[in-house]
Design brief:
The complex is a heterotrimer. Chain A is mainly α. Chain A has a single domain, classed as ABC transporter involved in vitamin B12 uptake, BtuC, CATH 1.10.3470. Chain A contains 14 helices and 2 strands, in the order H-H-H-H-H-H-E-E-H-H-H-H-H-H-H-H. In chain A, helix 1 crosses helix 11. Chain A is globular. Chain A starts with a helix and ends in a 6-residue tail after the last helix. By secondary structure, chain B is an all-alpha fold. Helices cover about 75% and strands about 0% of the residues of chain B. Chain B has 19 helices and 2 strands. In chain B, helix 16 packs across helix 17. Chain B is elongated. The termini of chain B are far apart. Helices cover about 40% and strands about 20% of the residues of chain C. Chain C is α/β, with parallel strands linked by helices. In chain C, helix 7 packs across helix 8. In chain C, about 45% of the residues are buried. Classes of the chains: A mainly alpha, B mainly alpha, C alpha/beta. Chains A and C meet through helix 14 of A and strand 2 of C.
């Protein structure tokens, strides 16, 4: 295969898998009004990533999953505990926890810069280089590592969402009902948070810590403007995510922007949102403004 | 390299910490800290565009660009929330990530120019404390003074708009203008902190000192001053740390220091602190334990109509089904307080202890009577409630209760409500 | 003569005759004409016409979502009207703002805000003070007297998070008193307060009425309406009826206001019947 074509397909496939995996869990974040928890998690798992690297003697990329996922869940738990202590608002709890953990992460990375962990890469991602880091198992080159990681993450998220569809749905729209039905909404909540953390780590290598939130939130929010049905919203979110990856790739292939694929994809997601926001038939800007002009007389 | 950062750096950080603390306090009360975070991210494309258009890396020009794009971001958030079904959190997430990504793209574009690399635009992302220069600090000082002056001048108005904006509007205060001014204060503060602590960590410096200060005081003016002070101290400690420990960037060091301050305040603050609450609970539980045993003494005495004989630990333990060990521990506490003494292999209340026991039983029965008369509650329910209330009723409340019940003699079960001193009565009767 | 009174330019507590003169005029206190209010496209008030008479205690009644709060808020200009207008003593609200005191729902603010009871009551004087000026001794003594009238003078220095529901409501009412207005608009002043507070509040409202002021209060407890109020405004998106309690507060009107919510309805009708027959 033509190496350029190979590289392109690896980048696009990795990007699409990232977008699909994040959109699956991101849809529930948006519906639960927890978009910023996604943002907080993606920042706050940084120390977990570093810790994972330090703990594993072989510096294996899979080693950072347990610590980072634990940090992600810890973040959510810390925010909720602070909020529940009634000493800080939810807004302030979030705004105090994730910068603290992120600062800790940056400090740790700076101290151990000699290891194979580049701050810029962790924070901004290098999706255009994914084909250069292969997964080597038992001496065999199995192809790009990120592809494997995000592929498995996508499958895991898909299993979670399909397997716990009913629980997630009821837990999202009516946690009290879920509780009374014995569906354990608190467990579902932390399971979802674990999934978000794991997905964020898997996406780290491709798109970086800060831009993960673009993939988590923006396609799902775009889809939410178009439909009231949950399954359609999740499907559309995946679709918008993948579309953003392709549009972003085309944007980034302009020579002057050639080194920031992930950022271009995030911008593309924002642009798609902007277009849908303008023209969405019921919940869009134009439709809302037009509707405001005429009042429906009550019966 | 000395252990102390340059004076100009400390000066800049002092302005920064004070401004962030003061403005952060107002943002904290308006629950706008995450908005501030979005603002900081949304400023990045403005900084890059300002550089792109003018080719200058003058701080004021870059800040102007940041102000424009930050304001545009805030305006977009409002527009999304008002004209779509999305809530604030999603709107913040969208604007934050899209603007920041745009900023990164522009940054990369700039770095492809030879001049771009030297522009030091990178510093806006992580912040760069050590290279604060005299002209930067002068700008920060100007902005900081304006911000703090405005807060002092419009303190009354800002306070009301933070507490109850609709009411402020009905009083004729210009609510929209004040809210706009508050947003501008936030923009200005974010701008001067971007260069020092960076886009991501600015929100930490805005939130943590204010959240810490809130725990120590219940007055807004004191909170603002305290938050400003904590902001200054944390910035200096962070700078010292960064100066003296190699490979320590100052921005994260400052934010981490402030977070530790916040955590410490949350735990240790005298009234709102977690530790204080825990101690209060502990003290209350001890009080309940002592008072329960006192009233058990009383009830035993009441049954046999003798007040001055000792009771065995087993007798006392049987009243509530406690373990003898638990009763012994409480008895020792009572002894320390001078309320009980050991005698003849048993335990007996002192006169003081007996008075105290009578007082507690009295409150218990008054409350039972009040509940059953006023609320028609069943007797078993009133007992449980009275068990809790007997430990918290104040003398004033007891007086009120008595008056409301017209100085009753007996409780709902017909048991006498103690008045006066049981032991003295006992002696009289004998 | 106290400091506060000298600031306001009248003697001590105004006598009820003086107050009556100050709060009376050729025009009704509140005149609502063809008022329609909508959130997005959904109307919450439709074509409401209402003229409120002077010196009355008026209950605003209706089911949840009937537009009671919206009516109060659009009178004080917090929610823009899609159509129609409101006049206060014959002039637009903007020019008469100082004559109207608004008491929001208790739950509308953060009671953990770092401020004291006295400070909250002082906020009632901010409108009179204007830009930049801080409340001084005159305002403080006025605020203290307002707290005394609500029977909570001893709470002045208390942090507001330490208050019970009834005390919070009293603080809000004291704040409104500090405004010394002619019209009081209260959103659910009796919600979640204890019996003692409820009695204290209704006593205060009667005092205000006897001084010639007009009180409009959103009220939920239909049973107490005949006892507490002179006038009633029945609202469910549209104005169902408005007038003296004896004329307007009828089972038929309640049926039209509440539709299918029969339980409350039968209870209320029962109360009415008992009243008519003179039973307790």
């Amino acid at each position: 295969m033509d190496p350029e074509l190979y590289r392109m397909s690896v980048v696009l496939l990795t990007g699409s898998l990232t977008a699909a995996a994040t959109a699956l869990v991101g849809s529930f974040l948006v519906l639960r009004r927890m978009s910023l928890i996604g943002d907080a998690i993606s920042h706050a798992i940084l120390p977990g990533v570093v810790l994972g690297f330090l703990l594993s003697t072989e510096r294996h990329p899979l080693a950072l999953f347990p610590t980072a996922a634990a940090t992600g869940v810890l973040t959510v738990w810390l925010i909720e505990t602070l909020f529940r202590s009634r000493r800080l608002s939810e807004d302030a709890s979030t705004a105090v926890v994730f910068p603290a953990l992120f600062a800790l992460g940056v400090l740790l990375i700076s101290r151990i810069r000699y290891v194979d962990l580049d701050l810029d890469c962790v924070i901004f991602g290098r999706i255009e280089d994914v084909d250069r880091r292969p997964l080597i198992l038992l001496g065999t080159d199995l192809g790009p590592r990120a592809l494997w990681m995000l592929g498995s993450m996508f499958v895991l998220d898909l299993l979670l969402v399909v397997g716990l569809w009913k629980e997630l749905k009821i837990g999202t729209f009516d946690p009290a009902l879920a509780e009374s039905l014995g569906l354990r909404p608190a467990w579902i909540h932390y399971l979802l948070m674990t999934a978000v953390s794991l997905t964020a780590i898997a996406a780290f290598e491709a798109v970086g810590a800060i831009l993960v939130v673009a993939f988590l939130v923006v396609p799902a929010a775009t889809a939410y403007l178009l439909t009231d049905r949950l399954w359609l919203m999740v499907a559309l979110a995946v679709g918008f995510g993948i579309a953003s990856v392709f549009v972003g790739y085309i944007l980034a292939s302009e020579p002057i922007l050639n080194s920031q694929g992930a950022a271009a994809m995030a911008v593309a997601a924002g642009m798609l949102f902007g277009v849908v926001w303008l023209v969405a038939p019921r919940h869009g800007l134009v439709a809302t403004l037009l509707r405001r002009r005429r009042l429906v007389k009550p019966e | 390299m000395t252990w102390l950062p340059e004076w100009v750096v400390l000066e800049g950080l002092a302005i920064l910490g004070a401004t962030c603390g003061a403005v952060g306090s107002l943002a904290l009360l308006r629950r706008q800290n995450l908005l501030a975070d979005t603002l900081a991210h949304a400023a990045l494309p403005g900084i890059c565009l300002a550089y792109l258009i003018t080719g200058e890396k003058d701080l004021p020009l870059l800040l102007l660009g940041a102000a424009v794009s930050g304001t545009l971001g805030v305006w977009l958030i409002l527009a999304i929330v008002q004209t779509s079904r999305l809530k604030q959190d999603a709107a913040l997430g969208i604007v934050l990530s899209t603007f920041f990504a745009l900023g990164l793209l522009l940054l990369t574009y700039l770095q492809n120019f030879p001049a771009g690399n030297q522009a030091g635009l990178n510093t806006f992302i992580y912040g760069q404390v050590a290279y604060l220069r005299g002209d930067h600090v002068r700008w920060m000082l100007g902005v900081g003074v304006i911000v703090l002056f405005l807060i002092a001048l419009l303190y009354k108005e800002f306070k009301l708009v933070c507490f109850d904006p609709e009411y402020a509007q009905t009083l004729g205060l210009r609510r929209r203008l004040l809210e706009f001014l508050l947003a501008m204060l936030l923009v200005l503060t974010v701008l001067i902190s971007l260069r020092s602590v960076g886009v991501v960590l600015t929100v930490g410096l805005l939130t943590a000192p204010a959240a810490a200060a809130r725990q120590w005081t219940n007055r807004l003016s004191a909170m603002i001053v305290l938050a400003a002070g904590i902001g200054v101290v944390c910035s200096w400690i962070g700078a010292l740390w960064s100066q003296n420990v190699p490979l320590t960037p100052a921005g994260p060091a400052i934010v981490l220091t402030a977070s530790v301050f916040m955590l410490g305040s949350l735990l240790l603050a005298p009234r709102r602190g977690v530790l204080a609450e825990w101690l209060r609970q502990l003290a209350h539980r001890r009080k309940v334990r002592l008072e329960n045993l006192l009233s058990d003494f009383y009830r035993l005495g009441e049954i046999r109509h003798v007040w001055d004989r000792p009771w065995s630990v087993a007798d006392l333990a049987a009243v509530r089904g406690l373990t003898p060990d638990a009763v012994r521990r409480t008895l020792n506490d009572l002894e320390d307080a001078g309320l009980a003494v050991e005698s003849d292999g048993g335990w007996q209340l002192t006169q003081q202890g007996l008075d105290e026991a009578a007082r507690i039983v009295r409150m218990h029965r008054l409350w039972e009577l009040y509940l059953s008369r006023r609320l028609d509650l069943a007797a078993d329910h009133t007992h449980r409630d009275a068990e809790a209330m007997e430990h918290v009723l104040t003398p004033e409340l007891v007086a009120e209760l008595e008056a409301a019940l017209e100085h009753p003699e007996t409780d709902p079960q017909g048991k006498p409500i103690p008045r006066g001193r049981p032991l003295a009565e006992n002696h009289e009767r004998n | 003569m106290t400091q506060a009174a000298s600031v306001r330019g009248d003697n001590e507590e105004p006598t009820s005759d003086q107050r009556k003169a100050a709060c009376s005029g050729p025009f009704p206190p509140i005149e609502v004409h063809d008022l329609t209010v909508a959130y997005q496209t959904r109307p919450v008030l439709w074509d409401v016409d209402l003229v409120v008479p002077e010196a009355r205690l008026i209950a605003v009644v209706g089911p949840n979502g009937a537009g009671k709060t919206t009516l109060l808020k659009s009178i004080v200009g917090l929610i823009p009207a899609s159509a129609g207008w409101v006049k206060i003593y014959g002039k637009p609200y903007r020019e008469q703002r100082h004559l109207v005191a608004y008491v929001p729902q208790r739950a509308s603010v953060d009671w953990d805000f770092p401020t004291s009871v006295l400070d909250v009551v002082l906020m009632g004087t901010y409108g009179r003070l204007g830009w930049f000026r801080r409340p001084g001794r005159a305002e403080r003594s006025l605020a203290r007297r307002c707290l005394e009238r609500l029977g909570i003078a001893d709470l002045a220095r208390r942090q507001i998070s330490e208050l019970s529901g009834g005390q919070q409501q009293r603080v809000f009412l004291a704040r409104a008193l500090a405004q010394d207005a002619c019209i009081y608009l209260m959103d659910e002043p009796f919600a979640g307060v204890d019996a003692t507070t409820e009695r204290a509040i209704i006593q205060l409202l009667r005092q205000l009425r006897d001084q010639g002021r007009t009180v409009l209060a959103v009220h939920h407890d239909l049973q107490t309406i005949p006892e507490y109020f002179d006038w009633v405004v029945l609202l469910n998106l549209r104005l169902i009826a408005a007038g003296p309690v004896a004329e307007v507060f009828t089972p038929a009107n309640l049926q039209r206001t509440y539709g299918g919510q029969l339980k409350i309805l039968t209870q209320a009708a029962d109360v009415l019947l008992r009243r008519e027959e003179g039973r307790p």
